[in-house]
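Structure, all two chains, one model.
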Amino acid sequence: MNAIFHIAAHELKRLFKSPLAWILFAVVQFLLAIFFLLILGQFIDPAAASLFANYGVTEIVVVGLLQFAGIILLLITPFVTMHTFSEERQTGSIKLLLSSPISLTELVLGKYLGVMCYLFLLLILISLMPLSLLMGTELDLLQLLAALIGLVLLTSSFAAIGLFVSSLTSHSAVAAVSTFGILFVLWIMNMAGNTGTELFREILTYASLLNHYHHLLDGIFNSADVIYYLLVTSLFIILSIWRLDNERLR
Amino acid sequence: MKMTATSRLQSRLNSIVTLLLILCMAALLAWLSVRYQAQMDWTLSGRHTLSHASQQVLDQMDGPVEITAYAREDAALRQAIEKIVGRYQRLKTDITLHFINPDAVPDEVRNAGISVNGELLVRYQGRTEHVKTGTEEEFTNALQRLARGSEHWLAFLEGHGERDPHGTANHDLKLWSSQLASRGFKIQPLNLATVQVIPSNTKILVIASPTVDILPGEIALIVEYLLRGGNVLWFADPGSLHGLESLADQLNINIPAGMVIDFSGSLVGIEDPTIVLNTPSMYPEHAITKAFNLTTFFPTTTSVQVEEQKEDLPTWNKSSLLKSGDHTWLETGVLEGEIEFNEGSDKLGPLDIGITLERIVDIESDEDSSSIQQRIIVIGDGDFLSNAYVGNSGNLDLGVRLINWLSNDDDFISIPVKTVNDANLEFSPYASWIIGFGFILVLPLLFLGTGLFIWWRRKNQ
């Protein structure tokens, strides 16, 4: 158990020692703030009052912002996870790790926890914006909670997929691009949702990362959506362990 | 461990099998999680849950409900439909939803009377209802009508050149009556001269614009039916009443000679001033036109005037149902050349062109006495439901609503739109300052600064 925390702490330190992590924070915050202010401006604008007649601030501004946040996280997670295993592989320290008494499970979980801590801090930062709206109105807090849970689950799946891809290659850049590719495909999968048989469509809709997120953003707390993300996360973590185990035997 | 070729193969196999097992496990868990879902609506306004009224209607329905959605291949529309039907499906699992592209089946669309992209055909126990706008209110009301299920007989008077419910000529009523039939009403032509009695199970007697005089014996039967408490739908087109004056007397109404002239139709491209236009804002407050947002057209109409109550006749509770607009009048002169309002002979609008009458009738039977609510509708036009005009705008909808009301199947369930508590934003200037600058300037600069600092420190190490 301790080993996991040690590795996580080590990973977190590594992340924050690099200027990239901080610049990512700055860029994400900046982009989301722009979007936040834009959407807020639209909502307040008296000219658009009739459009937003019976919609609350939570539904329009918060959901809009977090939708955009989901996309931003999709773009930056590959950069965060690309070094997790690839760097170790490059420097050769992977062999050290693999031959150490730490179990593979502990290793993978530790790395994952480290990455998630970083991303979690980022999510806390992002959630400051919707929360700041409390200064001006009452929010639909439960819906906000559902949306944030959705964002956390979404991010955890991104991170798990990124982790797995990183464990496959020794080049960080390759890891980053591949992760991005996979995430993007899973994201837009539900757009293909109009072709093919009904079963095919159902599978595609289920597999799409975006779909379940939207349900949670809307305030629908469905066990199937939550379990979906937990499944994706655990699947890719287990696959990472499997991959490293394989490697060890080679 | 010695790595022989065999053991290497074994371990390879081992890892592949493990991979397959992992994937199968994931797929199984995914399938299970979808099969046994638990959903909670966390929105404050309960946006995703059905109102109590809808739930009650669903409780009344035993048996499967089939919904066919005629929606084009537009993801947004189909998803919206799935969303709203899904709310009902969650509470009643034997509701099935099926999509059809209306462009692919034009015949089916025409026969079923589909007019809107995204229209739903809801089938239950052999009856169908249409849902056009997909609001919870419309949907639940349609379900409620389906749940009712009692058989209602509509007797259409015939033998005097009336509009034929099974006729396909322009002036007949086939299109309207087939819509009624699909909703569970039974259409029965009634020739009083032959049959000599109005069947006791008649729910509504429909008199659809006779063109020949009705025999006194038949009139007597109709009046007797009226006094007994029977419901009547009377389309009295301009021209002679053909013997039904005594019916008008019983109802304390007067249907004058003449035709209503309405020039407002020219605003929507109708040049014929004998067509009366009714826009949604013009409908008087009435159960029949509640939440009715369609325009209706009435070609060649006369007005129906309420007279003073005569003492020895039953007292009716009268309501105005349809009115012609301002700047209309009842033209009593010949309709040729320039049609103008003539002070003295013509009557200035707005005029009632349709009214309803109600009263409570006590029925004495051998066992006990009960009372029923009698309902009558008199409209000064029958063309609006004829095959030629029924497809226009809201005419058909109105036609269905008339029958629904007359069959006392008219409990309208009102489901108000959900309100939210966070529709307004008000910030103190202090707050606006934080939000405006804090997020977009202060925080990013803070992080950027730290990042640059670390980079600079690294460089100088």
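Chain A has a mean pLDDT of 86.
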